Amino acid sequence: MRLLFVCPSLGYGGAETQLIALAKGLGARGHEVVIYSMSGQSERPHQLEEHGVKVIHDEKRSRLDFSLIGRMRAFVSAWQPEVVHGFLFDGNLYARLAAVANGGAVCLSAERSSDYSLRRAQTIGHHLTKHITRAVVANSYAGAEFARRLFAFPPERVHVVWNGIDLCAVRQRASLATGLRASLGMDHGDKLLCFVGSIKPEKDYVLALKIVRELLLIEAGKWHCLFIGAGYAKSMPYTVQEFDQSQAYAAVVEGLFSDLPSLARVHRFGAVDNVIELMAQSDVLLSTSIREGFPNVVLEAMASGLPVVSTEYSDIRRILPLPWQVVAERNVASLVSALERASGAEAKAVKLAQEVWVDQHASIEQAVLSLEAVYRACLLEAGK
């Protein structure tokens, strides 16, 4: 099959990470794969080119860039992909507008989250183009239900393909990771909490920092806390509402960071590409998301041998194997108790249960085969 993916950029977000993994996996199965990125900036082109996946770097210069649409449609008309698959809202919208240049192409949209609201302009664009979409691929059951409502599709037109990771590669990287705890000045017996996420409201840094404050005040054990992630990166040369909102939220978060006790035990690494190595040397991962699709970082933590404690969102109860790992109420004391439990006497049992779960459900090979089956079913339904 000739497969064209359309996405806003190839940064370090979860959707972009999963797209790269899927593209490599599909390419390895003999499909011709092209990713059309609407940002000229990309931190990771080498991860694709060495696997035979072609990347087109274009530049989106306005919210509705007609010149970009023209170039994209010209490419679709010339290359004649069988499937055009969008990722994230702009990727979905532009994939639909490009797919009409090849009447034989099947157009799919992706749903990577749930329970969010579209801006007025997004709502108009979605309703004017959603009929071009033959099917939606969601990475969670919560996202699939949301997509059914958003598109007014019957269940058979919305498919769930959970995220997958390269389990062997993650475990190899984790096994070789050393030196972090000494570099942070940790003593024997100290515990290290890890939090990974961009600084944005959906990740709820405010709740995470309240939890960290309580951990730092515990006298019976000495906690260190590691934060990995940065604020919203503005990559488009036009006004982006999300950027302004993220700046205001980041200011609140910075104030909370500066007010923490024992700041010498709070470590911030920003956006880095060795997240797996850092997690593998920690004692527990905390996830405080309010809404999200399928969290790659949780899968990577589980495969790295790192116990996870999470608030409740999306499919997280289907993912974490022990019920108490998911705390239903967004309560600081309850989450602190679960963190101490996961990093203490029950850590070994948690690691084993997580290892079994990821082996059964979370390989990138499984995700690639499931997505390939969706493409074949859509093409068959379209008479291709």
Can you describe this structure?
With 384 residues, the chain is of the alpha/beta class. The chain folds into two domains: 2-164 and 363-381, Rossmann fold; 167-361, Rossmann fold, CATH 3.40.50. Helix content is 45%, strand content 16%. It is built from 16 helices and 13 strands. The strands form two sheets. Strands 3-2-1-4-5-6-7 form a seven-stranded parallel beta sheet, with helices on both faces. A six-stranded parallel beta sheet has the order 10-9-8-11-12-13, sandwiched between helices. Strand 8, helix 9 (205-217) and strand 9 (223-228) form a beta-alpha-beta unit. The longest helix is centred in the middle third of the chain and has 18 residues, at 241-258. It starts with a strand and ends with a helix. The model has no long low-confidence stretch (mean pLDDT 92).
What's the quick description here?
This protein has helices at residues 14-28, 46-49, 66-79, 88-99, 120-129, 141-151, 167-175, 180-183, 205-217, 241-258, 275-280, 296-304, 316-319, 332-343, 347-361, 364-381, and strands at 2-7, 32-37, 54-57, 83-86, 106-111, 135-138, 158-160, 191-196, 223-228, 266-270, 284-287, 308-311, 326-327.
